[in-house]
Design brief:
- The strands form 2 sheets. Strands 1-2-3-5-7-10 form a 6-stranded mixed β-sheet, sandwiched between helices.
- It is an alpha/beta fold.
- Helix 1 links the parallel strand 2 and strand 3 (about 50-55).
- Helix 1 (about 30-45) runs parallel beside helix 3 and helix 4 (about 110-120) crosses helix 5 (about 145-155).
- The longest helix is centred in the first third of the chain and has 19 residues, at about 75-95.
- The chain is about 50% helix and about 15% strand.
- The structure holds coenzyme A.
- The site of coenzyme A (COA) has 18 residues, from helix 2 and strand 6.
Length: about 260
């Protein structure tokens, strides 16, 4: 834990990672980046973690992207390393085995938008803007943005947004499917999704995510094979049997993640 970020996990198994540099609009400098990498690594290994939520402190920005003041002091070599490390961070968020939600409670630009793109779902408070603004700084999205944005909103729309460094309102982001939901408070929106997920079998959610992720970039036949393999993992679980018993007894199931 560091002053620049914090992490808490509640007794439901919901982990919340919070960027905490509100005075710098939660911009990502070296120390924050390394801290986030470590914490996301720990979350990946946490078999009790049912849902991962990424959010930020303050009411101005979710994340203003890379720390541009710090960047100005970097050598070319250090800039290269930073870009690799932030790319790794979003890759690791994308690979988290449990569902992940970005609760975007402020502006999200550049690397801040890319952190959100790496999550499975995005919810956003109204009144803010979001976008991959890197090209306006004569750089390109380097933390997965050129690859994830087209997969989420489609090729032509992603090209339009990246080629114009567009800053979309939260309403526009909702309209094109860049965010899943919009409301007054991002954490409340995330909590609605979390509540739905907590009613489901934790191992089933992990298996469903792995099938979707592994199958998405393959053909349908290969994807269907991947789905079958993911299903096999679920068959011997206690939770699957508990769901059947609970159904017969007309009660809500109590899942244990086994
Ligand atoms: N890196 C470093 N510092 C940043 C930053 C960034 N990406 N974004 C904002 N800050 C700093 C500002 O320099 C300012 O610091 P100061 O108080 O020492 O002057 C402080 O955060 C507040 O920023 P300010 O612009 O006054 O706040 P705001 O609430 O009016 O606007 C943003 C917030 C995010 C809309 C605006 O700061 C912005 O557009 N930032 C750049 C976003 C960007 O292009 N990111 C792409 C990076 S690849």
């Amino acid at each position: 834990m560091s002053a620049e970020w914090n992490y808490s996990k509640d007794d439901r198994g919901v982990g919340v990672l919070t960027l905490n540099r509100p005075a710098a609009r939660n911009a990502i400098g070296w120390d924050l980046l390394e801290g986030l990498l470590e914490q996301v690594g720990r979350c990946a290994e946490d078999s009790e973690l049912r849902v991962f939520v990424l959010t930020a402190s303050g009411d101005k920005a979710f994340c203003a992207g890379a720390d541009l003041k710090e960047r100005k002091t970097y050598s070319e070599a250090k800039t290269r390393t930073f870009v690799r490390r932030i790319g790794r961070l979003t890759a690791e968020i994308g690979r988290l085995p449990m569902p992940s939600i970005a609760a975007i409670n402020g502006h999200a630009f550049g690397g801040g938008c890319e952190l959100a793109l790496a999550c499975d779902l995005r919810v956003m408070a109204s009144g803010y803007q979001i976008g991959l603004t890197e090209t306006a700084l004569a750089i390109i999205p380097g933390a997965g943005g050129t690859q994830r944005l087209p997969r989420i909103v489609g090729l032509a729309k992603a090209k339009q947004l990246i080629f114009t460094a567009a800053r979309l309102s939260s309403e526009q982001a909702l309209e094109i499917g860049l965010v899943n939901a919009l409301g007054d408070n991002a954490m409340d929106l995330a909590e609605d999704l979390v509540a739905g997920m907590l009613r489901c079998g934790p191992l089933a959610l992990r298996a469903a995510k792995s099938a979707i992720e592994a199958g998405f970039d393959t053909g349908l036949e290969e994807g269907l094979r991947i789905e079958q393999t993911a299903y096999q993992v679920i068959i011997p679980t206690a939770d699957r049997l508990e769901a059947l018993v609970a159904f017969a007894e007309k009660r809500a199931p109590e899942f244990t993640g086994r």
